[in-house]
Amino acid sequence: MGFFQRLFNIGKAEAHSAIDKLEDPIKMTEQGIRDLKVDLDKSLHALAEVKSMFIRSKKEKVTYRNQANSYEKKAMQLLDAAENGRISFDEADRLASESLTKKEEAMQNLSRVSSECEKFESNVYKLDKNIKSLHSRINGYDNDLKTLKARSKVSDAMARVNKQVSKIDSSSTVAMLDRMKEKVEEKEALAEAYGDIADGNKSLDDEIDKALLDTDSSGSSALAALKARRSKKVSSPDITVKVDITKNDNIL
Fold first, then answer.
1. Domain spans of the chain?
2. pLDDT (tens digit, 9 = 90+) per residue, 170-218?
3. Which of 25, 158, 213, 241 suits 194 as a labelling partner, its CA being 20 to 30 A distant?
4. How far is it, in rounded angstroms, from Cα 229 to Cα 235?
5. What is the reported pTM?
6. 33 near 145, Cβ under 8 Å?
């Protein structure tokens, strides 16, 4: 296979692939149903034409059959007229022969029309059968289209939900919230880093002042606790002990 032929095949394959991706199943089904309805209209028109030819051929059969019978009857009447002496035998034979010739022509036309009539009748039957089948298929595809539309809506909804859950769609709300969370965490980490740097850059005086401040805070807390205990003791009632000296003479 030549280079250009291979290149052509690759291009054709890519074109088919692109077309397959562009095909919308709902729109394609709707277009298919429209095409079938156009075919149905054409078939109905063809059926009407064939039926009209069938009806006309049946009428022609009756006409040619009547003509054949009429010419035969006239030939017999001519012979009867000759026997009765109303016309000569020669004239009766000539006219009767002409009548029989006309009868033969009518019979030939009758045979031709009868053959055409059979064909028209067969065509009418086939067309009518095909139209009924096509009509049934269209009704079936209409029902399928309703089902496809419902399934398509469900699949679209599920696809949107699944994209959000699986984070396939980077523009989704879930992905946006995750990015915001990461940004807040980055800011917190940055603030902590700046705090560590600030602690590392403190001078000796800053450390001494901080230590004294912690000590004063501890002393103040202890003093406050002591004052609280003292306040409780002062506010408690005095206990007086009375001694009966008269009953304890031995003490002296």
1. 25-149, 166-199
2. 556 667 777 888 888 888 888 887 777 766 666 666 666 666 666 555 5
3. 213
4. 10
5. 0.49
6. yes
